[in-house]
Amino acid sequence: MSKRDTVAGIAAPLTIDNLDTDQIMPKQFLLGIDKSGLARGVLYDLRMDGEGKPRPDFVLNRPAYQGARILVAGANFGCGSSREHAVWGLMQAGIEAVIAPSFGEIFYFNAQNNRLLLVTLEAPAVAELAATVSRAGSQELSIDLLRQRVLAADGAEYAFELPPRQKRMFTEGLDMIGMTLADAGAIDAFEDRHRAQNPWMQIDLPRQQASATPA
Fold first, then answer.
1. How far apart are the C-alpha atoms of 116 and 78, rounded to whole Å?
2. E strand or H helix at 144
3. What does the CA dihedral 41, 43, 46, 51 come to, rounded to 10 degrees?
4. Which of 2, 8, 69, 118 has the fewest beta carbons under 10 Å from its own?
5. What residues have CB less than 8 Å from 6, skipping those under 6 apart?
6. CA–CA distance, 48 with 61 (Å, rounded to integer)
7. Tens of pLDDT, residues 108-163
8. H helix or E strand, kind and range, residue 86
9. How confident is the model at residue 38 (pLDDT cuts 50, 70, 90)?
10. Is residue 44 classed exposed, middle or buried when 0-12, 13-18 and 19+ CB atoms within 10 A define those classes?
């Protein structure tokens, strides 16, 4: 996986509170057994009308937000069901980061595990960012992972907290398995120390079997 210390690009304001995973990825697009082809379903009922035609007033259908990589979203983004497809679909649609005042808990951890960057800011800061990216010529945002800052086109900066594990996954290009393997030495050292301190917990199966066998 690639190492990243910055996510930058066009940001789209999608300030709908309580946008749940059923809306982000409607159930009719969950027919496959793999992760592919989900970009088509992302926010489908918001993007398309009843005849399957793009709604011209929806933000992601507007020319200024074509190729958006960042969403500036409403509170409790990704609430609702546990479907991980919502995260996969957003990423397949090109979204690399979501900035919001809060996130649904399961969605938050699904996003962490898949390296979709979630940035939590206070609601007034998100409202400012949404207003900024709504202005013509100010759609670009940059998220500096090392400094933990969101940088707006007007020069404003917004500091955010990022769990160390998530920061490391992005900046070192690791997935969950890679994170575990990176600590293999520490895990081995712990196991050696634990065995030395608690020898009575070790199972010597051949010895137990031999002692249980009648003479």
1. 12
2. strand 140-144
3. 0
4. 2
5. 142, 143, 144, 145
6. 9
7. 999 988 989 999 999 999 999 999 999 999 999 999 999 999 999 999 999 999 99
8. helix 85-92
9. very high
10. middle
Q: Which of 43, 11, 16, 19 is nearest to 29 (CA)?
A: 43
| Eight-class DSSP state of 58 | S
3 state SS for 95-132: CCEEEECCECHHHHHHHHHHCCEEEECCHHHHHHHHHH
Q: How many CB atoms lie within 10 A of CB 199?
A: 8
Tokens of 26: 């409607």
Find the farthest-apart pair of alpha carbons in the chain and give their distance in angstroms, rounded: 89
Nearest alpha-carbon partner for 118 in 133, 134, 101, 131: 101
Amino acid at 170: F
Query: Phi/psi of residue 174, each to 5°?
Result: -115, 145
For 196, the 3-state DSSP assignment is: helix
Please tell me the pTM assigned to this model: 0.86
Degrees, nearest 5: CA angle 133-60-85: 115
Alpha carbon separation from 99 to 32, 37, 195 (Å, rounded): 29, 24, 45
